[in-house]
Specification:
Layout lengths: L2 E5 L2 E3 L5 E8 L7 E7 L6 E6 L5 E3 L7 E6 L4 E6 L8 E9 L2 E4 L3 E5 L2
Parallel strand pairs: 2-11
Antiparallel strand pairs: 1-3, 3-8, 4-5, 4-9, 5-6, 7-8, 9-10, 9-11
Length: 115
């Protein structure tokens, strides 16, 4: 069955870095658009970054220049490198795969930016 498993979250100080990973299985990973979104309790989920099957990247304005999304189709994994983290980046980060009408979500990983 389809699985998206995120890892790499944790507690980091402001200005620090984290690298999130999302390991996928159960579908043709290379064909899917992969993305990262985040959600804070009481707020709507927001798109952070996406990467198409061809490698086209889109970023939310609030992460441009700080975050980088990448994918390794050989490993069926999508990454989110997060640098210069700010307290307002604190959220649960989830990955998503989309292809046509099919879309799947992972369970999410908590990122906390605090001193």
């Amino acid at each position: 069955q389809v699985q998206l498993v995120e890892s790499g979250g944790g507690l980091v100080q402001p200005g620090g870095s984290l690298r999130l990973s999302c390991a996928a299985s159960g579908f043709t990973f290379s064909s899917y658009v992969m993305s990262w979104s985040r959600q804070v309790p009481g707020k709507e989920r927001e798109l952070v970054a996406s990467i198409s099957s061809g490698g086209l990247r889109i970023y939310a304005d609030f992460v441009k220049g700080r975050f980088t999304i990448s994918r390794d189709n050989a490993k069926n994994t999508v990454y989110l490198q997060m640098n210069s983290l700010k307290p307002e980046d604190t959220a649960v980060y989830s990955c998503r795969s989309v292809w046509g009408s099919k879309n799947y979500w992972g369970q999410g990983t908590q990122v906390t930016v605090s001193s």
